[in-house]
């Protein structure tokens, strides 16, 4: 009997469970009104990823991104972030009157923020960040009195005056993120007193006015990239809570108050790109928890304090950036005790002395930039201990001595810039063991010897400059055999022999097979970006801003210009000036459709000016002066855009439309080779040009100028940098 009772109870429980499950399933049916609103919303959207394909039937649990209340079936949460949706249909959500959470960030929604959103009285979270919304913040939103999170960041079309009601409309507001919009005016007074506020990001706007202190304990404050003025407050209400403080790129002045270091929870402090002045107080000592300290691009002066954190050997500092100030004195030895450092930037100051020998203690260091200072002495061997180095920039100092073979240990190194020093000796073969190198600049030093084939190990090389050294010997056959090479500068050395005719097809950049855009920089820039997302690891990256080109000028190269070199259709500049090149200019110039600058001046090139030059529509600067060119220069093709480009070629004559070639007509005179006449670099000797233009001396001058010894003696024109 007892066994039968137990079976009956088990069956009863099973039945009740099934009934409850069925009831719950039935309760998940979408409210008819909400369902119709969502259908209308979907009908007005572009949904290329078919993210909303599951919006069918009445079972709420199957609708992607939708959550419903079990008993009523009313929609209370929509989360469709990063779904690839686009359209201007947000107002169709205004009938979801019980909506508590609306997350549509990371899409392409457009149009204004609907005024009817003010009717969604139950909203606690509204996230419309990273869309294409426009217009001002509707005043009806001031009725969202229960809102705890408001995120509109990443909508640069949202702007207008910063409304005052933002600081008072909801006393539950914890997170306000309006970064990267276009708000103007001053920060509303209420935000300085809103006790519930923990997270505030107003970066990347057009806010003005004096920065005031906040009376509530904030956790995150980002007001960077505005026009805020005044001096730094102490943020005393956030002493134990503030973890991130970013006030970069404003107009703050005065000194850095020592009370800033009383923010004991601080992990990130960025005060860069302001007008901060005076010395860094030795009493400005931060907590060991600090991970990022950026005081760059200010007007700070005096020595670097010996200690910036309480206990350097226990500190968690990952990034220290004091670059672009007026700091002086030596690099403190205590800085080498910051064992956790991954990025150290002290460039563009007035630092003196030697690089500390103990720099090798920083074994986690990935980026070291000490460029543009007055540092002297040798590059320490101990740098090999920084085996994780990704970037080493010591350029434009007074460093001397030879490079140590021990630097071979830096096999993670991608950027090596030692330009503008007094480094001597040869490029050591072990340096070629830095097989990850992509950007190498050793220009303007005292390096000598010949190039070694060991450099071929730099298979990822994108930029190489050995300009203005004392390198000699023949150019090796492998010089153009790097697949990713974008810029090669060997100018201002003593290379001799012929330009090797081979391996021109290897480089994707030289042959125009790369889709990497060029953004207009005529100089080489390698900006390094650092990403810090609160983790213990920094992410370093860089972008190479450089035209695609080859510069072999100011050497002693001879022979003819290889056909393969002229046929490189990806080149944007080519400079072979100030050599002893002879023969004709190859006629396949029409292949170089991207060429912007061409300088073949001060050689012994002969023959006619190739007609194919006239089809180079991108050409901005041309210099063929001081050669032995002869024949007509066709003006009808627009070559008259380059005054002075043909000077010092007395056998050339101008071809005028309908008149043929007039040997007594003057070639275009001028100092500039650019189409706009913008370069006044002494590209021609005016006196020598007029002598060569006098018809009575025509034959004798031709003979004289085509003699290499005579040319070297007569024409000592200023040698410009191309």
UniProtKB/TrEMBL annotation:
Give the matching SUPFAM superfamilies: L domain-like (SSF52058)
Which parts of the sequence belong to the Leucine-rich repeat-containing N-terminal plant-type domain?
33-68
Q: Gene3D superfamilies, from UniProt?
A: Ribonuclease Inhibitor
What membrane topology is annotated for this entry?
A: Single-pass type I membrane protein
So which residues are the signal peptide here?
1-22
Q: Does the keyword Transmembrane apply?
A: yes
The record's annotation in InterPro entries points to: Leu-rich_rpt, Leu-rich_rpt_4, Leu-rich_rpt_typical-subtyp, LRR_dom_sf, LRR_N_plant-typ, RLP23-like
Pfam families assigned to the protein according to its UniProt record, in alphabetical order: LRR_1, LRR_4, LRR_8, LRRNT_2
Name where it's found. Cell membrane
Q: Does the keyword section mention Membrane?
A: yes
Would you tell me the Gene Ontology cellular component terms? plasma membrane
What are the alphabetically sorted keywords of the record? Answer: Cell membrane, Glycoprotein, Leucine-rich repeat, Membrane, Repeat, Signal, Transmembrane, Transmembrane helix
Looking at the UniProt entry, the stretches that span the membrane are 683-706
Q: What family is reported? A: Belongs to the RLP family.
The protein's name in its UniProt record: (wild Malaysian banana) hypothetical protein
Q: Look up and give the organism this protein is from.
A: Musa acuminata subsp. malaccensis (Wild banana)
């Amino acid at each position: 009997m007892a066994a039968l009772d137990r079976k009956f109870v088990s069956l009863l429980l099973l039945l009740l469970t099934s009934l409850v499950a069925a009831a719950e399933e039935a309760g998940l049916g979408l409210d008819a009104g909400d369902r119709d609103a969502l259908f209308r919303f979907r009908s007005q959207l572009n949904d290329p990823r078919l993210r909303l394909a599951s919006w069918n039937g009445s079972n709420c649990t199957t609708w992607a991104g939708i959550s419903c209340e079990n008993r009523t079936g009313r929609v209370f949460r929509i989360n469709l972030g990063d779904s690839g949706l686009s359209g201007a249909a947000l107002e169709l959500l205004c009938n979801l009157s019980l909506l508590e959470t609306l997350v549509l960030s990371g899409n392409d929604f457009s149009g204004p923020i609907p005024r009817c959103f003010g009717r969604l009285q139950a909203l606690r979270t509204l996230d419309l960040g990273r869309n294409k919304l426009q217009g001002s913040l509707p005043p009806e939103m001031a009725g969202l009195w229960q809102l705890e999170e408001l995120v509109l960041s990443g909508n640069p079309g949202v702007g207008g005056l910063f409304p005052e009601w933002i600081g008072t409309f909801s006393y539950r507001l914890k997170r306000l993120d309006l970064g990267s919009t276009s708000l103007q005016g001053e920060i509303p007074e209420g935000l300085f007193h809103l006790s519930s506020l923990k997270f505030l990001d107003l970066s990347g706007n057009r806010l003005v006015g004096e920065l005031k202190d906040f009376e509530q304990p904030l956790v995150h404050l980002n007001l960077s990239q505005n026009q805020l003025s005044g001096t730094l407050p102490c943020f005393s209400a956030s002493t134990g809570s503030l973890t991130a403080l970013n006030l970069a790129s404003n107009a703050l002045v005065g000194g850095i108050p020592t009370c800033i270091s009383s923010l004991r929870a601080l992990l990130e402090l960025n005060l860069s790109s302001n007008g901060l002045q005076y010395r860094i107080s030795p009493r400005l000592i931060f907590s060991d928890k600090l991970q990022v300290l950026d005081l760059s691009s200010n007007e700070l002066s005096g020595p670097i304090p010996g200690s910036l954190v309480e206990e350097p050997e226990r500190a968690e500092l990952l990034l220290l950036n004091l670059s672009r100030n007026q700091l002086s004195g030596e690099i403190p030895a205590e800085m080498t005790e910051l064992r956790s450092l991954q990025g150290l930037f002290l460039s563009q100051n007035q630092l003196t002395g030697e690089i500390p020998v103990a720099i090798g203690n920083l074994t986690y260091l990935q980026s070291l930039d000490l460029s543009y200072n007055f540092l002297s002495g040798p590059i320490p061997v101990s740098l090999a201990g920084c085996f994780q180095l990704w970037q080493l920039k010591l350029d434009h100092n007074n460093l001397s001595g030879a490079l140590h073979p021990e630097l071979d240990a830096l096999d993670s190194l991608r950027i090596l810039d030692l330009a503008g020093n007094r480094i001597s000796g040869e490029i050591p073969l072990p340096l070629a063991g830095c097989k990850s190198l992509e950007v190498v600049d050793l220009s303007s030093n005292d390096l000598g010897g010949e190039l070694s084939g060991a450099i071929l190990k730099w298979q990822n090389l994108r930029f190489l400059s050995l300009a203005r050294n004392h390198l000699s010997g023949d150019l090796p056959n492998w010089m153009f055999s790097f697949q990713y090479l974008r810029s090669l500068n060997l100018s201002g050395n003593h290379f001799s022999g012929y330009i090797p005719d081979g391996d021109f097809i290897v480089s994707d950049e030289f042959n125009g097979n790369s889709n990497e855009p060029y953004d207009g920089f005529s100089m080489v820039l390698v900006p390094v970006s650092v990403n810090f997302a609160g983790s213990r690891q920094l992410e370093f990256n860089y972008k190479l801003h450089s035209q695609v080109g080859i510069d072999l000028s100011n050497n002693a190269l001879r022979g003819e210009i290889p056909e393969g070199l002229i046929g490189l259709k990806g080149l944007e500049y080519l400079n072979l000036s100030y050599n002893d090149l002879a023969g004709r200019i190859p006629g396949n110039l029409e292949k170089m459709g991207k060429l912007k600058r061409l300088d073949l001046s001060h050689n012994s090139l002969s023959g006619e000016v190739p007609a194919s030059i006239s089809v180079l529509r991108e050409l901005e600067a041309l210099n063929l002066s001081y050669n032995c060119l002869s024949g007509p220069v066709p003006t009808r093709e627009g070559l008259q855009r380059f005054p002075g480009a043909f000077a010092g070629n007395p056998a050339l004559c101008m071809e005028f439309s309908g008149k043929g070639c007039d040997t007594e007509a003057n070639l275009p005179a001028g100092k500039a080779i650019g189409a706009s006449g913008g370069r006044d670099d002494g590209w021609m000797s005016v006196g020598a040009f007029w002598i060569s233009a006098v018809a009575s001396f025509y034959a004798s001058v031709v003979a004289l100028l085509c003699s290499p010894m005579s040319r070297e003696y007569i024409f000592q024109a200023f040698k410009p940098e191309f």
